[in-house]
């Protein structure tokens, strides 16, 4: 059985967000899927198998962190679409049946892939006690996300504050269903991005996720409303970074990026 490690939302190896990808004939039992994800030990490992002709989607898709299954994952979906196209298993738009509904991935001639995901509604809230202390930064505002991600979107004063975060992950794990999206406007949009973000998901076994596609279903409407533009580019990450181009389409968010396969081998267990 072939297993691949793909760096998503980047055009070069050892950047972006790595994901495991396994293409299967059918899903084995959940215990095996979870053990493989724990062995791979990346933010998410994606498992996919083809669906019969006439189905609502082309492939069934699931994602597991090292400790649990998740409802939505952008970078591992991008990685899966990249593997399907580079191995000849797909040639046009690909529809995935996932826990969060039908998702699609469309490849362009330049090698980029655009994901079509549901937009996450946002609700301004006060934020939990101790959030600023846990982050180690001043908090400008907090929004709860709805839909399939269950995060808190936390605006910080500036890009420097986001980049310098060294949060208390144990404290953050108690503050939302999945994690914290810390964000700020770009200091200099001339550098090619409009906003920055970092994501911390200790509640699902992920300290920091380098480039989180699903978080951009909340970041896109947040910053599009702020800037008055539907199409933006976000830079995410701490030690590893990647770019996500977003296009807000009402109840859907388009996210475009590239990916690189860095490891390919045989899973023997």
From TrEMBL:
A Pfam family recorded for this sequence: PhzC-PhzF
SUPFAM superfamilies per UniProt: Diaminopimelate epimerase-like
Keyword Isomerase recorded: yes
Sorted UniProt keywords: Isomerase
Keyword field contains Isomerase: yes
Signal peptide: none
Record-stated family: Belongs to the PhzF family.
Protein name: PhzF family phenazine biosynthesis protein
